[in-house]
Amino acid sequence: TIINWALEMINKRRAKNGEPPLDIAAIPLDDKKSFDMLQRSETTAVFQLESRGMKDLIKRLQPDCFEDMIALVALFRPGPLQSGMVDNFIDRKHGREEISYPDVQWQHESLKPVLEPTYGIILYQEQVMQIAQV
User: Fold this and answer.
1) How far is C-alpha 113 from the geometric centre of its chain's CA atoms?
2) How many domains does the chain have?
3) Quick check: helix, strand or coil at residue 119?
């Protein structure tokens, strides 16, 4: 795979410099350097994150956790983009809109465990199924 090829190239260079090999499995899901690069939209050649529109969304969202990265891919679809859901998600993440479960007029605290990772926005099919069980 391309990832294996890139890792081999990196580790050859690291070996020449007397550095230990890079183990990508050891990179934590909350790696600050990775999120710094992501927030700067340095995503060229990163599957599903390299388009101009996605880079613009990344700059607006400023993802800082793994859940935000997953949400990026789900949000960058015609439905969420055209419905205003993306703006609500971003505004809730950055504290510009109140987080509610799911709506200010219809608060259901029992939905908080299901909707908290997405700032109260119903974003995934799995959330709909979980809500039906609450």
Assistant:
1) 18
2) 2
3) coil
